[in-house]
Amino acid sequence: VIGGIGFARFAARESTAELQKLYLADHAKGSGIGYELIRFIEEQMRMAGFKQAYLETHDNLQAAIHIYEKSGYREIERPKEVVHSTMNRFFLKIL
């Protein structure tokens, strides 16, 4: 397994999917596969009728933050509906 990615409906915002679980094997990091996985899952989100993609991450995941920002995600304030998360960085992208 080189990596994986998924999404689910984000109930707090209409027409929004939550990008979940982007993982890459150590040997795949820096190869561009992360960007390919994001493009793939965003297309799946569009096909499912979603208009926006939301994600949560943490300050200590700088490589993830870099790939999200380079993929067009913009940082937003913590949504008031998010009460369970230990994450402290929140991003949104119009699909």
Q: How would you describe this structure to a colleague?
A:
The protein is of the alpha+beta class and 95 residues long. 25% of the residues lie in helices and 33% in strands. The protein has helices at 33-47, 62-70, and strands spanning 3-9, 16-24, 52-57, 74-76, 89-94.
Number of E-state strands: 5
End-to-end distance:
27 Å
Low-confidence stretches: none
Strand order of the largest sheet: 1-2-3-5-4
Instruction: State the major sheet.
Output: 5 strands, mixed
Q: From the alpha-carbon coordinates, what is the Rg to the nearest angstrom?
A: 13 Å
What is the overall pLDDT average? 94
* Run of helices and strands: EEHEHEE
Q: Any idea what the CATH architecture is?
A: 3-Layer(aba) Sandwich
**Helix content class:** 25-40%
Structural class by sheet pairing and helices:
alpha+beta
Tell me briefly what this model is.
The protein has a single domain (3-94), classed as Gcn5-related N-acetyltransferase (GNAT) (Aminopeptidase), CATH 3.40.630. The protein is built from two helices and five strands, in the order ββαβαββ.
